[in-house]
Amino acid sequence: MCVGLPMTIIETDGMRAQCEYGNETRFVSVILLSKPPIGAKVLVHIDTAVRLLDDDEARLIEQALDGLDAALKGHDCDQFFADLIGREPQLPGHLR
Fold it and tell me: What sections of the sequence does the record tag as coiled-coil (predicted)?
């Protein structure tokens, strides 16, 4: 399984960008995107930015990753998934 990271572009030359997530900074390919601006949030898979993210979507992904990290360490992770507790999962329209 491949996990995508929500990263922020801090520098770019149009072909690749220096991005950061937490304390990590790395260069990723941005050739699949149309000139993403500095400060843009992107979803990165295997050092390739695959799409732009809005701030809310990036935050939700970050919370899910933090929750996964907490669960793997044996800590309580309910706070990271508060929007899921008490509701039934909804299938996307194309799967209904």
Answer: none
What does the buried/exposed string (b/e) look like for 19-43 if buried means 16 or more CB atoms within 10 Å of the residue's CB?
bebeeeeeebebeebeebeeebbbb
Model pTM score: 0.79
| pLDDT computed for residue 92 by the predictor | 74
The answer to whether the CB of 73 falls within 8 A of the CB of 30 is: no
Element (H, E) at 7: strand 5-12
* Token representation of residue 8: 């922020």
